[in-house]
Design brief:
Mean pLDDT is 86; it is low at 173-183. The strands form six sheets. Strands 1, 3, 20, 21 and 23 form a five-stranded antiparallel beta sheet that branches. Strands 8-9-17-16-15 form a five-stranded antiparallel beta sheet. It has 305 residues and is mostly beta strands. The protein has two domains: 2-46 and 221-302, Jelly Rolls, CATH 2.60.120; 57-211, no CATH class. The chain has helices at residues 82-96, 159-165, and strands at 2-6, 19-30, 33-43, 57-64, 67-74, 100-102, 107-108, 111-116, 121-126, 128-129, 139-141, 151-152, 154-156, 184-185, 192-194, 197-202, 207-211, 224-228, 241-245, 254-258, 265-266, 270-280, 295-302.
């Protein structure tokens, strides 16, 4: 058996860091040879929300003095969990002036994304923007002022972000839910269930709460694949996949993956000058990796070994 090492010097410099090219010192001929991954070391540095995935925007409507303004939230490309997504919404709310404070100086926001660990679900709660005449909590309005009448904040979530939080897609409609029309949330007028998941609306407080009915896919690339250009596995799609990695570290942490046993794949017979390793997402497409500090050890054996 022979070992070859690919590292940061082999990464193709295209800003994606998902291809590593190993050039053999001389042309090599493979016939009845097999390839396996020995180990992979890399950082957990691929985004789950980005403009590439089309899941980086949502919008909300804020009524102020009789005028309804729609604000579009553009999430910077990055790695987000639900608390981070909620924190960014609060940040944008402050930037847009769509918040209030209490007399004690506490900030008040009018929507919240939260994890319900017991239900393995995400909850979205849309709160009521108070009016100046109905001000039980002694709110102090931002520059936009109060609503003309107490009004539930309305939020619009596009399909791709719905997949992240496990909410229905626009085509999944029924029973008068807020997402029947244009996938809006915060406009419900009664409580009920949707495929077993509760949605609640308090007609007195005008607070609406929605619970995801599908399992949230917060990271659609929870596992990634390693592929090689000179492998043709007829039982795999894509046919070049030779290994899978599930991160054993937190976001930004170092992943050290070492196989306990080699899983050899037959190399395509032929003469080669180079070998190309690609990093793919779960859909089989190249996955952009932010940190190029990658080391991959491969083992090659022939039929005699």
């Amino acid at each position: 058996m022979r070992t070859i090492v690919l590292n940061q010097t082999n990464v193709v410099d295209d800003g994606q860091n998902n291809k590593l090219v190993y050039r053999f010192p001389n042309s090599v001929q493979f016939k009845n040879h097999y390839l396996a991954v020995q180990s992979v070391t890399m950082f957990y540095s691929w985004y789950n929300i980005s403009s590439t995935f089309g899941n980086n925007t949502f919008s909300y409507q804020y009524p102020s003095a009789g005028v309804i303004t729609t604000f579009t939230v553009v999430i910077p490309d990055g790695i987000y969990n639900i608390p981070a997504l909620n924190a960014y919404f609060q940040f944008v709310s402050v930037q847009n002036g769509t918040y209030m404070t209490t007399v004690a100086g506490q900030y008040v926001y009018f929507a919240e994304f939260a994890v319900n660990a017991n239900l393995y679900a995400i909850e979205l709660t849309c709160y009521t923007i108070p009016s100046a005449g109905v001000n039980p909590n002694a709110y102090i309005a931002s520059a936009l002022g109060f609503a003309t009448a107490p009004t539930t904040l309305v939020m619009t979530i596009p399909t791709a972000l719905c997949d992240i939080i496990g909410f229905p897609r626009p085509a999944e409609t029924g029973n008068g839910l807020a997402w029947v029309s244009n996938n809006w949330y915060g406009t419900g007028t009664s409580s009920g269930t949707w495929k077993g998941a509760p949605y609640l609306y308090n007609s007195t407080t005008k607070i609406a709460s929605y619970t995801s009915y599908r399992s949230p896919q917060v990271n659609q690339n929870a596992s990634i694949y390693i592929a090689c250009n000179i492998i043709n596995n007829p039982y795999s799609i894509p046919s070049s996949i030779i290994y899978a990695i599930t991160p054993s570290a937190g976001i930004g942490g170092i992943i050290k993956d070492q196989t306990p046993e080699f899983a050899f794949n037959k190399l395509i017979d032929g003469t080669y000058n180079e070998l190309v390793i690609s990093i793919l997402g779960t859909n089989g497409s190249l996955l952009a990796i932010e940190d190029p500090n990658i080391t991959i050890l491969l083992v090659i054996k022939d039929g005699k070994d």
